[in-house]
Amino acid sequence: MTKRDWLINIRNSKQMTQQEVAYTAFIDRAYYAQIESGARNPSSDVTKRIGDVLGFHYTNFDRNENSFTVSLQNSPMTLAHCDLDLRYTWVFNPIMDKELSDIIGKRDTDILNNDGSLALMKLKRDILEQKIGIRRKITYPNYTGTISYDVFGQPLLNEKGIMIGVTTAATELMPS
């Protein structure tokens, strides 16, 4: 049984109570509390309804349980989902040794406020406005100078084809 801190962080970032999420998702509050605590695993229908209420893709519930994530573990790639407010709802392989609790429910500039974060926020806003995939090189300052990433982002759609945010894949570039 693993507590779903990421789910609690998303709910808190939306300033919703367990009761409000449960009511809107048409489930019992006690059942929702058990989902957050990890005591219960929701059905695929319930995960879709909770995702719709909180603005994340329902596959977040399967976040680290497939061979794809095993293959990418410790790679120089970071994968992420953000909601329409550009708050993180899912991150795989966070950069700079950040903990998920320091990322989920926050925007890039809440985590690190620098030129790289501002460029990444602009990329995401452009994706939301243009509704297309966009690829850019984004450079962050770090303690040894700078670090650059090849970042591709595209609209994140729910099962109904409605845009619910942005998904990104960032690959650390080797210094030239």
Structural overview:
This protein has helices spanning 5-13, 18-24, 29-37, 44-54, 67-72, 108-111, 115-130; strands at 77-83, 88-92, 134-142, 145-157, 163-172. The protein has 176 residues and is an alpha+beta fold. The longest helix has 16 residues, at 115-130. It is globular, with a radius of gyration of 17 Å. The mean pLDDT is 90. Residues 7-61 form the HTH cro/C1-type domain.
List keywords for this structure.
Lambda_DNA-bd_dom_sf; Beta-Lactamase; globular; alpha+beta; 176 residues; 434 Repressor (Amino-terminal Domain)
Structural domain tally: 2
Number of helices: 7
What is the H/E string? HHHHHEEHHEEE
Q: Which regions are unreliable across 5 or more consecutive residues at pLDDT < 50?
A: none
Mean pLDDT, as a whole number? 90
Q: What is the percent of helical residues?
A: 25-40%
Strand content: 25-35%
The outline comes out as globular
* Fourth CATH level, the homologous superfamily of the largest domain: PAS domain
Protein name: XRE family transcriptional regulator
Pfam family, one: HTH_3
Domain HTH cro/C1-type: 7-61
InterPro entries: Cro/C1-type_HTH (IPR001387), Lambda_DNA-bd_dom_sf (IPR010982)
